[in-house]
Amino acid sequence: MRRPTVTEPDPHRWWGLVVIALAQLMVVLDATIVNIALPSAQRDLGMSDANRQWVITAYTLAFGGFLLLGGRIADLVGRKRTFACGLVGFAAASALGGAAGGPGMLFGARALQGVFAAVLAPSALSLLTTMFSDPKERGKAFGIYGAMAGGGSAIGLLAGGLLTEYLDWRWCLYVNVPIALVALLGAFAVLRDHRPADTGARLDVRGVLLGCGGLVALVYGFSEAQPRGWTDPWVLALFAAAVVLLVAFVWWQTRAPSPLLPLHLLRNRNRAGCFLTMALATIGLFGVFLFMTYYLQAVLGYSPVKTGLAFLPMTAAIITGSTQVSARLLHHVPPRALMVPGMFLAALGMVLLTGLSVDGDYATHVLPGMLLTGFGMGLTFMPVFATATAGVAPQDAGVTSATVNTSQQVGGSIGTALLNTIATTSTTAYVAAHLRDPAERARVVAEGTVHGYTVAIWWAAGIMLLAGIVAGLMVTSRAPRHLVPPGEGAAAENADARTAYGN
C-alpha cells in the first residue's frame, strides 16, 4: 500500500508569519486608528454631527459585508495573489482618504479600504493556516496572530493619538502606505502559494449579492438605530431586509453549484461555536474601546496621546494571554478550557468598569478592569482562530478564514452601534430625571454621560458572559493534537477531524 506523502514544512514560514502579522495589524488597527483623529477630521472637512459616524461605519460595513466574497476569491484565484492585490488596493484607498478634500471623498475611501481589507484578511489567515502543519508551531503562530487581532485595535488608538497630536489626522491614513509596501515586498520574497487547481468551481454571484446585502443591511440597521431610534420605520425596514436576504442566502447555499459559504462548515458545532463566540466577544470589546476613549478624553480630560497610552496595559494583557498562556496550553488542553475562563475573566473586567464615575481615577477605576478584560480576550482569541480553521479541506480554507473575520467585524460593528444606542438612551433618561436646577446642567450632563457608559458596559459584560456559555456548550473538541492541519486531503477531513470535533 502506498504510504501517504509527508508535506515538508515551509522553510520561510516564520518570516511569512511576520509578513502576515504586519498586514493583519494594519487591517485591524485601521478600524480604530481614526477614532481619536475624528474630531480633527470633522473640523477640517466640515462634516456634520449626523454624518461623522460614516468615517467609522463605512469601513466596518464594507469589511464585514464583503469578507465572504474575499474568502472565496482567495480560494479560486490563489491566496498569495489575493493577498498582494489586497495590500496594493488598501494602500491606494488609504492614500485617497488621506488626500480627501471633502466628507464624501473620505467616506468613499474608507469604504474602499473596507473592501480591500475584506480581500486581504481571509487570504492572510488561510496562508497562515496552510504554512504551519505542526500543532505546536501552529499554536505559537496563532498566538502571535491572535495578539495582532486583539491588540491591533488598541494599538490603533495609540497611533491615532500620536499622529493626530504631532503630525496631522491625514497621517492616520497615509501611514498605511509604507506598511503595505513593506508587507508587499515581504510577500513576494517569502510567501509561497500553489496555483489553485481548476475544479470547475465558479464565483457564486447570487450568493454574493444575497449574503453581502444581508450583512450590510443588518450592520447598517444597527448603525441607524442610534440617531433614529429602534422603532423608526427605516430601521425596521433595514432589519426586515436583512432577515429576508440572509434567509434567502442560506436557502440558495443549499442549491448553488459552487456555494459562497459551504454550509457543512456551519453544521460542525465546534466551528459554529467559535464563530458565535467571536461575534459575541467582539461586541463587548469594541464597546470598551468606544466608551473608554470618550471617558478618558471627555470626562477625565486626557489628550489624544495620553488616551492612547492608557490603552497600552490592555494591549499588553491581550498579548500576554494570547502568546504566553494560550499558545503554551492549547496543545495540552481542550480549546474551551481556555475560551470559557477567558470570556468569564473578560466579563468580570467589564463588571469592574461599571464603577466609573465623573471623578474617577485611572489607576483604581479603569486599569484593573482593562487588564482583566484584555487578558481574558487574549486567552480566547487564539483558540477561536485555531479551532475554527483546523481540519478544513484546502478548497475551503479561504472561506473558513473569512467567516472567522466576518464574525469579528460584524460583531464589532453591531457592538459599536448597539451599545452606543443603549448608552445614549440611558444618558438622555438620566439627564431628564435629574436636571432640576439649570445651574447644575454641566455636572448632571457629565454624570448622565458616565451613567450611560456604565449601563452599556453592564450589557457588554452580559454579552461576554453569554459568549463564555456558548463556548462551553458548543466547542467540545479535544486538545489540538487531534486537529488536522489543512491541506492533508479530504480523507483527513472526513476521518481524523470527525474524532477531533466529535462529529
Model description:
The chain is mostly helical. It has 2 domains: 423 residues, Growth Hormone, Chain: A; 56 residues. 76% of the residues lie in helices and 0% in strands. The chain contains 20 helices and no strands. The chain starts with 12 loop residues before the first helix and ends with a helix. 56% of the residues are buried. The N terminus and C terminus are likely disordered.
The tally of domains stands at 2
User: What would the principal axes of the Cα set say about the shape?
Assistant: globular
- The string of secondary-structure elements, in order, is HHHHHHHHHHHHHHHHHHHH
Determine the mean pLDDT: 79
Question: Cα distance, first to last residue?
Answer: 28 Å
Structural class: mainly alpha
DSSP helical segment count: 20
Which percent band covers the strand fraction? Answer: under 5%
Largest sheet: none
CATH topology of the largest domain: Growth Hormone, Chain: A
Topology record:
Elements: H1 13-29, H2 38-45, H3 54-77, H4 79-98, H5 103-131, H6 135-166, H7 171-174, H8 176-190, H9 205-228, H10 233-253, H11 264-267, H12 269-299, H13 304-310, H14 312-329, H15 336-353, H16 362-389, H17 397-434, H18 441-474, H19 490-494, H20 496-501
Helix pairs in contact: 1-5, 1-6, 1-8, 3-4, 3-5, 3-9, 3-17, 4-5, 4-8, 5-17, 6-13, 6-14, 6-16, 9-10, 9-17, 12-16, 12-17, 12-18, 14-16, 15-16, 15-18, 16-17, 17-18
